[in-house]
Amino acid sequence: MSGDEARTSMKLAVVGAAGRMGQTLIRVIQETPGAVLAGAIERSGSPHIGRDAGELAGVGHLGVPVTDDALSVFVGVEGVLDFTAPAATVEFAELAAQARIVHVIGTTGCSPEDDTKISAAARHAVVIKSGNMSLGVNLLGVLVKQAAKALGADAFDIEILEMHHKHKVDAPSGTALLLGQAAADGRDIGLGQHSVRVRDGHTGPREIGTIGFAALRGGSVVGDHSVILAGQGERITLSHQAEDRSIFARGAVKAALWGKGRKPGFYSMLDVLGLNQ
Which of 14, 15, 68, 148 has the CB geometry, 3.0–4.6 Å to 186, for a possible disulfide? Predict the structure, then answer.
């Protein structure tokens, strides 16, 4: 990257820089025109503090040391990419609001209380949050909404099946919930009041209009999701398989570039991709 390109590129920071997703984000930033890594953050006490972020991610020396001082980094960048944990994301949202920067959130497992705090931060920062940053999944969500609307609850039951690697700590996945919300929106119902998360023992017949979730965990699966619409004598399956987590990183960087210069507010990947209806 030339000096002029570096000066005009969007300065981005990565939190959780030493993790698998953090390293992927660093690599994608380096290969994306218009973006430059300007900060790398890890938790206090991490053995990676002080290391060069580029060397950590395998892209060579970048002159960006890993630090645990998030606020000092945030005031010097234009955007932060965050695939961490709910408690950390809430803290980062508050700091991003103070710094008035773009905060791209791919963190899953946030509670309603967490989302309320993140939404409050969006009064001062551009917050772009999604259960999945990939183009394919967000397009799938649009298709699920259309299918759920077209196929009535009295004729078609909806089940969402997802599988992830054995290290994933939350279930259902953020993507499964994104797809469930799309289905609920298509039928103009509340997901919280109509979702079924657990089935065990004598459950009785399936209640009409519910949206079921099933979560599988094992191996190194990046992410498989299927939305099944089951009717009498026929079944429709809409699915997506993630083969490389870089699809999420590319979406996150795209979101940050889209958010540069926009008014503070709460946005989703549907806004970024022009798919919001």
Answer: 148
pLDDT of residue 4: 57
Residue with tokens 């053995």, as numbered in its chain = 47
**Lookup: tokens for 216:** 């599988």
Q: Which helix (H) or strand (E) holds 265?
A: strand 265-267
| Closest alpha carbon to 181 in 268, 96, 53 | 268
Task: Give the helix/strand (H/E) hosting 73.
Answer: helix 70-74
Percent of all residues in the chain with a pLDDT value above 70, rounded to a whole number: 97
Active site residue 240: no
CA distance 259 to 271: 10
DSSP, collapsed to helix, strand or coil, labels residue 266 as strand
Could you say which of 117, 149, 168, 260 is catalytic?
A: 168
At residue 189, the pLDDT reads: 97
- Distance, in Å, from the CA atom of 82 to the CA atom of 245, rounded to the nearest integer, reads 14
Amino acid at 205: P
Q: What percent of the chain has pLDDT over 90?
A: 95
Q: Which residues contact 62 (CB under 8 A, 6 or more apart)?
A: 30, 37, 52, 53, 54, 55
Spatial distance between the Cα atoms of 44 and 47, rounded to a whole number of angstroms: 9
Distance CA 93, CA 110 (A): 13
Query: In 96-173, which ranges are E strands?
Result: 102-105, 126-129, 156-164
142: tokens are: 């649009």
Task: Tell me the pairing of strands 223-231 and 156-164.
Answer: antiparallel
Work out the mean pLDDT of the chain and round it to a whole number. Answer: 95
Measured in whole angstroms, the distance separating CA 63 from the mean position of its chain's CA atoms is 28
Catalytic residue among 129, 145, 164, 254: 164
Q: Mark whether 202 is an active-site residue.
A: no
